[in-house]
Amino acid sequence: MAKRAAPEVNAGSMADIAFLLLIFFLVTTTIASDTGINRKLPPKLPDDITAPKIKEKNLFNVIVNKDNQLLVEDQNMELKDLRQAAIEFLDNGGGTEANNKCNYCRGKKNPESSDNPSKAVISLQNSRETNYGTYIAIQNELMAAYAFLREREAKRLYGMTYKDILQGLKDAKKDSDEEKDFEEKKDAVKKLFPEKLSEAEAKE
Amino acid sequence: MSKFNKGGKKELPAISTASLPDIVFMLLFFFMVATVMRDSTLMIENVLPYADQVEKLENRSLVMYIYAGKPGKEYRKFGTEAKVQLNDKFVSNIKEVQSFVQETRANTPEDQIGKLMAALKVDKNTNMGLIGDVKEQLREVNQLKINYSTKAGDATRNVK
To answer: Which residue of A26, A129, A143 is in closest CB contact with B129?
Structure first.
């Protein structure tokens, strides 16, 4: 009997099938990269707690009305100037007494503006009709002001950017000395310019 | 007949396409791994605003998405006012945000609940009143970590 080899299966259409699947996945999926501004909401407080008194000079009032116009410290302002104004306010360091002096601030030391960054509070109030895009832009500018100052302090203290510290913390092995080191640096910089952004309830 | 073509007819051998499926499969696997299926159909217009102080959201399983915006073209029958969308449904009562958070928490391993993040995917032409209400509801259930989803870009472009 003659030996007959089994005929080879034709794999020519394999590519077509694979292409079909490939195109299906290409169409139905999105390469998602979610980015955004991280914020923390204030916890719900019991009604009987009264708000702590904040000196007027330690408060930076930002109000947005329903037409998306900005009122900063009772003055009209364009969005592009907000970042610089916030930096000047936070970095002012007008305190003169030992307990509220700020020895790393490089601001104008204006006695009418904030004492030191840990006392300085930015208050943001929006109207219910404010546009979300504008609101995000304002949030972005205020966060940028904090980021700028933290960046500066991180450079001064550790010779590295704040972003590098955060990245290093992420890359470090869990519970390693390296992680602790980055954690300490991050906390130290954060403490110099703590994020104090208070959002008032929207006006009708 | 040209004089160079002496040795009779020599045809070029066909290029072997046997490895084509392998290449295509490789691409296929790449896309299967690198992509995520959309989990809910958007029924709203959702043009995110721009911002440059952004952080990347990691660990998608610990993120709950809250969409808001004006109903899209095919969903105008629900009105033209901006609405909140959770999963595949419009929210008729804003309090549903609370049960949505509770539900997500119930489906999350206990030690991870503290890391849950609420991502607000809001159309840039929405009024802040609606967002304020959503934030109020999130505070009600103590879901304090939030993220305003944005596209990376210059924030001043949000303002016309």
So the answer is: A129
Do the Cβ atoms of B159 and A139 come within 8 Å?
no
Number of H helices, E strands in chain B: 3, 9
B114 close to A (CB below 8 A): no
**Closest CB from A12, A38, A202 relative to B147:** A38
In angstroms, the CA B159 to CA B154 distance is 10
DSSP state of A118: T
Q: Which residue has the tokens 């009708």?
A: A204
Compute the Cα dihedral for A59, A65, A71, A72 and give only its sign.
positive
Residue at A30 is within a domain? no
pLDDT exceeds cutoff 80 at A197: yes
Rounded Cα distance between B54 and B50, Å, is 9
Q: How high is the pLDDT of residue A52?
A: 76
Q: Distance from B44 to chain A by nearest Cα, in Å? A: 15
Strand order in the sheet with B63-69: B55-56, A35-40, B145-149, B117-122, B63-69, B83-86, B89-90
Cα torsion A114, A115, A119, A124 to 10°: value is 0
Distance between CA atoms of residues B133 and B139, nearest Å: 10
Q: Which residue does chain A place closest to B36, by CA atoms?
A: A29
| Structural domains of chain B, with CATH | 50-158 (3.30.420.270)
Q: Which residues of B touch A150 (CB under 8 A)?
A: none
Residue A39 lies in a domain: no
Q: Is A75 helix (H, G, I), strand (E, B) or coil?
A: strand
Whether B51 contacts chain A with CB within 8 A: yes
Structure confidence by residue, pLDDT tens digits, A19-39: 888 888 777 776 666 788 888
ipTM of this complex: 0.75
- Residue A148, in any domain of the structure: yes
